[in-house]
Specification:
Number of domains: 2
Distance between the termini: 34 Å
Radius of gyration: 20 Å
Largest sheet: 8 strands, antiparallel
Number of strands: 11
Oligomer: single chain
């Protein structure tokens, strides 16, 4: 049975569907989901107003977001689920950098050239990229996805 993680971001709530939960190891798979609605827009003032958003989102079924890919998550000792990620110190547009500097970073352990950007990572004293635990939240039986159209 699937569970959900709901993370409040100001007035919105991002949600992930969590599957393949191993409570003993504290591992699972997650994928971003959303609820698609067609809100009733009432024009007025500076912007339109969308009444009954809570009810519409409550009644909508969660679907996997377009382009979302599953990723592994783990539970920390506080019971919060999340994932480890490398710490990016700086992201620079490739177009603004000198070609010889970019070439010197091509195989450097502290850099990654991807698309139009070069990412520079924080490094440990041992020469490895630093990582941090990104918290998503606790498991829930319901998907609380919400997008506030009133803002």
């Amino acid at each position: 049975m699937s569970k959900f993680i709901n993370k409040r971001i100001y007035t919105d709530i991002e949600s992930w569907m969590v599957t393949e939960i191993d409570e003993v190891k504290g591992t699972a798979m997650a994928i971003a989901v959303e609820k698609r609605i067609t809100p009733k827009m009432i024009p007025g003032g500076f912007a339109a107003h969308c009444p009954n958003l809570d009810r519409e989102f409550d009644e909508a079924e969660p679907v996997v977001k377009d382009g979302a890919t599953p990723f592994r998550i783990t539970r920390n000792k506080d019971g919060i689920w999340g994932f480890k990620t490398e710490v990016i110190a700086l992201a620079l547009p490739v177009a603004g950098c000198k070609a010889e500097w970019i070439e010197s970073k091509r195989n450097a352990p502290d850099a990654l050239i991807e698309g139009d950007y070069i990412y520079l990572f924080e490094m440990t004293k041992g020469g490895k990229r630093k990582t941090t635990f990104r918290k998503l939240g606790k498991l829930s039986d319901t998907c609380g996805y919400f997008y506030d159209y009133n803002f």
